[in-house]
Write a structure and sequence with these properties.
elongated; 394 residues; Rossmann fold; binds adenosine-5'-diphosphate; D-amino Acid Aminotransferase, Chain A, domain 1; alpha+beta; six-stranded antiparallel β-sheet; binds magnesium ion; four-stranded antiparallel β-sheet
Length: 394
């Protein structure tokens, strides 16, 4: 799960990371009021969307008066911000963060990620802040500092000092840098984060080290341990297909193809997507209906897959152990009767109660295409989709 910049800043500042003074607003009037409350003469108005690259896309504006704040807000509220991270459809702006503008001397990149090869938290830092890490890795790879944290002891003072020195932080500011690094690490590990990124972390003209931007992502499987963090979820920023699925306890990931997949088990779901590709098609989604799925659950999964308008054929692939083929077949029949579908549906069933399942499909009189193996199922789905697409095109 991702959260907004202002939320990440609040969490980090509770762990001792210094951030500029700022306040949230839901309307231009409120933004102007917030700026007056904050005081000062220059403010930064920042669109709160779950994506980076806002600055270049017009989602971060320097303002020096009430009027400029209104203008900046008018260009943001209710619009979609398209950055290189949002995809072409963009993300809706419904909140802005008003922050005191600070005088920047230096911009640093700071990231905390899970390093799978060492199974440890890795700190990635660079003296070249402001650019995306991918860009830094390409243009200034030598500037990147990496440091692995030993989980038994956490981030040590000496280790944090080493990072500060390798970034060329002045001796007088090293203590602030150590505090920042330790605060980020504590926030990361105590809240089961999967990522903390501060880009840029800045050294100001008046010798402060401040997080000017902040991004945090959390491990969905650990959210039950952090009810205060779960509450920060903002569905307006999520792919509606995926948040719908999460609400129903289904594991769904939307993709760009046309063949919808309804499968049990993550491994089989991956294999099904591979086989569709092998057969010359493109999967529209990953979907794992889980074990012991009732007909209603299968029907829900089906409706979810069909809610994607790109779907032009559906492949149901069930290898039933805990699941029951008859329940799956009932779910399929239920949906097909209810929706009057005009796209081809291929069903491959194997395992528990397979005969009953086949019988239900056969007796339904519905035009379900059946298959015995995964390869056969994928080939039938792809060829049915192709001939269907051809028929409707001509
Ligand atoms: P994004 O990464 O989405 O583009 P940032 O929060 O990093 O958004 O802001 C983009 C740039 O705007 C920063 O690199 C920084 O130069 C500037 N900026 C952001 N917040 C402030 C601030 N409070 N004071 C001064 N400059 C800021
Ligand atoms: Mg940034």
């Amino acid at each position: 799960m991702d959260i907004h910049e202002y939320q990440a800043k609040e969490i980090l500042s509770n762990f001792g990371v210094a951030v500029p003074a700022g306040a949230l607003a839901y309307s231009p009037e409120q933004a102007a009021y917030r700026a007056r409350e904050l005081g000062g003469e220059k403010w930064i108005v920042k669109a709160q969307v779950h994506a980076g690259g806002r600055g270049k896309a017009g989602g971060v504006k320097l303002c020096e008066s009430d009027n400029e704040i209104y203008e900046a807000c008018e260009g943001m509220f209710g619009r979609k911000l398209v950055t290189h991270q949002t995809g072409p459809e963009g993300k809706g702006i419904y909140r802005v963060y008003v922050e005191a503008a600070v005088p920047i001397d230096r911009e640093i990149y700071l990231g905390f990620v899970m390093d799978r090869s060492t199974q440890r938290v890795m700190i990635v830092a660079s003296s070249e802040g402001g650019m995306e890490i991918e860009e830094i890795a390409e243009t200034r790879p030598d500037s990147i500092v990496r440091s692995i944290v030993e989980p038994a002891v956490g981030l040590q003072e000496f280790q944090a000092r080493e990072i500060a020195f390798s970034l060329g932080i002045e001796p007088g500011l090293v203590q602030q840098m150590v505090r920042t690094l330790k605060g980020c690490y504590a926030a990361f590990s105590e809240s089961d984060a999967t990522m903390v990124e501060i880009n840029p972390l800045v050294v100001t003209g008046d010798d402060r080290i401040l997080a000017l931007d902040a991004k945090m992502s959390f491990d969905d499987n650990a959210l039950f341990r952090h009810p205060q963090i779960s509450e920060l979820r903002d569905k307006s920023q999520e792919d509606p297909r995926e948040s719908n699925a999460a609400d129903r306890g289904l594991a769904y990931v939307g993709l760009d193809g046309n063949i919808g997949c309804i499968v049990n088990g993550a491994g089989l779901a991956m294999a099904t997507m591979d086989t569709i590709k092998l057969a010359g098609g493109e999967p529209a989604n990953f979907l794992d209906i889980g074990g012991g799925a009732s007909p209603e659950r299968v029907a829900k999964a089906f409706r979810l897959v069909l809610s994607d308008s790109n779907v032009q054929a559906v492949l149901v692939n069930i290898f039933a152990g805990i699941n029951r083929c008859d329940w799956v077949a009932e779910g399929v029949v239920q949906v097909l009767k209810e929706l009057n579908l005009e796209i081809p549906v291929v069903v491959r069933l194997a395992g528990t109660n397979v005969e009953e399942g086949q019988k239900i499909l056969a007796q339904s009189g519905l035009p379900v295409i059946r298959a015995n193996t995964l390869m056969e199922a994928a080939q039938r789905a792809v060829s049915a989709w192709k001939s269907d697409a051809f028929a409707s095109a001509s």
